[in-house]
Amino acid sequence: MPSIDFGHRQLVVRREPAVALRASWRSIIVVTILVVAALALAVLALGVGQYPVSPAQVIAILAGRDDSFASVLVLQWRMPRILLALLIGGALGASGAIFQALTRNPLGSPDVIGFDFGAYTGALIAIAVLGGGYYTTAVSAVIGGLATAIVVYLLSYKNGLAGFRLIIVGIAVAAVLSSVSQWIILKIKLHQAITAAIWQQGSLNGLEWAQVYPMVGGLLIACALLAFVGPQLPILELGDDAAGALGIHPERARLAYFAIGVLLIAVAAATAGPISFVALAAPQLARRLTGAPGVGLISAAAMGAFLLLSSDLIALTIFAPTELPVGAITVTLGGLYLVYLLIVQARRV
């Protein structure tokens, strides 16, 4: 059988004669650079704070060669925040890649569709009715995100799931939830409204090891589900007819990826609040760097981790010693990117 020319050199890993995993060398190089850059930023960020630690000392602490007081700063106080920035950024990037692939639209991001608003509304109800608390708020945020996703899915489903219809319905549901959230804030007590406003910004401030473990658990579940579903997402981007011809049930696969994407955005929002625009920008930036025909989960996750950690480092240093919520930085940078994306989309019409 003649070989297929994919237009660029690829790495092929074969498990069986009929099953092969392909990745372009350009994508592998880009992902490697993003991972190395994120790790370098992590070393730098671990030393940033009121008590600075040099990168050389940070490396010595991580290698177990330094057990001074600085090791407490690095390992107990700062490490959870940096790990969560990488994990949450990766989850947001992968979730954005899934929804942009399902909708076949660069605007098909979970924060545009409204799942972030669902998580925020769930957290707000927990703060208003149950008095808040981290785990109560986190669980309520997950439930709110999942409930919103179900509503958007049911309202947008008509003889299949059309990407453009999903985006329009999601925007409408997000507007309704925004109004409900504002009404709740006007009715609750002042200290509850302040707590809700802080959570709404999306912040990594004050996160500890206790928040790392649930985040890791959620990501492991999502990774297991992705492994079970298999690499069907690029095939879905070809359209239902092509996917069906290749032996894939489009609606079943689309629903599975939809659930995984919602899980990723829900656990991220439950941990740090709704952090906007990372899920929107990361897949498209990664796609441009890799030159891939479609969005890739691994490259989008690597880009998301790099973007969120970079934004958090800016939030730590721009008005030091005051620490800004990382969501304030991602909204500023992401808003500029959204304007650029809308201009590009308008020129193509």
Secondary structure elements and pairings:
Layout: E1 10-16, E2 19-24, H1 25-46, H2 55-62, H3 69-103, H4 110-113, H5 115-129, H6 134-156, H7 163-187, H8 190-201, H9 209-229, H10 233-236, H11 240-245, H12 250-272, H13 278-290, H14 297-317, H15 326-348
Antiparallel strand pairs: 1-2
Helix pairs in contact: 1-3, 1-14, 2-3, 3-9, 3-12, 3-13, 3-14, 5-6, 5-7, 5-8, 5-12, 6-7, 6-12, 9-12, 13-14, 14-15
Membrane topology: Multi-pass membrane protein
Family: Belongs to the binding-protein-dependent transport system permease family. FecCD subfamily.
InterPro entries: ABC_BtuC-like, ABC_transptr_permease_BtuC
Characterization of this structure:
α13 (278-290) crosses α14. This protein is mainly alpha-helical and 349 residues long. 73% of the residues lie in helices and 4% in strands. The protein has a domain at 98-274: ABC transporter involved in vitamin B12 uptake, BtuC (Orthogonal Bundle). The chain has a two-stranded antiparallel sheet with strand order 1-2. It is a multi-pass membrane protein. The chain crosses the membrane at residues 28-49, 82-101, 113-131, 138-156, 162-186, 212-235, 255-282, 294-320, 326-344. This is Iron chelate uptake ABC transporter family permease subunit.
